[in-house]
């Protein structure tokens, strides 16, 4: 399970950088989707392939930052988290923990 989270963490960083830095929406063929909140602000799309690689796309209406995480038990301790956002000058940042 820890190996899966390591793969997901690396894949998330790979996924978010092209989506946010390109300035263009890249249409991905992702079969599954769901709003994660009752106000429909956080929208998650995902899919997987035969090699067990999971691809995520997170769309969030925000003016600051967003965090996305995975946990083997649904709790913060032991979770893998990606935090990203845009500074006021327009530069983009990411942090993986």
UniProtKB/TrEMBL annotation:
GO cellular component: extracellular space; secretory granule membrane
Organism domain of life: Eukaryota
Residues annotated as signal peptide: 1-23
Regions crossing the membrane: none
Entry's Gene Ontology BP terms: dopamine catabolic process; norepinephrine biosynthetic process; octopamine biosynthetic process
Pfam families referenced in this protein's UniProt entry, alphabetically: DOMON
Entries under InterPro entries matching the protein: DBH-like, DOH_DOMON, DOMON_domain
Keywords on record: Signal
Stretches assigned to the DOMON domain: 40-97
Protein name, as recorded: MOXD2 protein
């Amino acid at each position: 399970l820890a190996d899966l989270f390591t793969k997901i963490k690396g894949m998330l960083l790979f996924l978010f950088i092209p989506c946010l830095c390109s300035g263009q929406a890249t249409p991905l063929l992702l079969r599954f989707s769901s709003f994660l909140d009752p106000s429909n602000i956080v929208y998650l799309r995902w899919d997987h392939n035969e090699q067990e690689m999971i691809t995520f796309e997170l769309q969030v209406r925000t003016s600051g930052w967003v965090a996305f995480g995975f946990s083997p038990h649904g709790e913060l301790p032991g979770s893998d988290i990606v935090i990203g956002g845009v500074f006021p000058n327009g530069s983009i940042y990411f942090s993986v923990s």
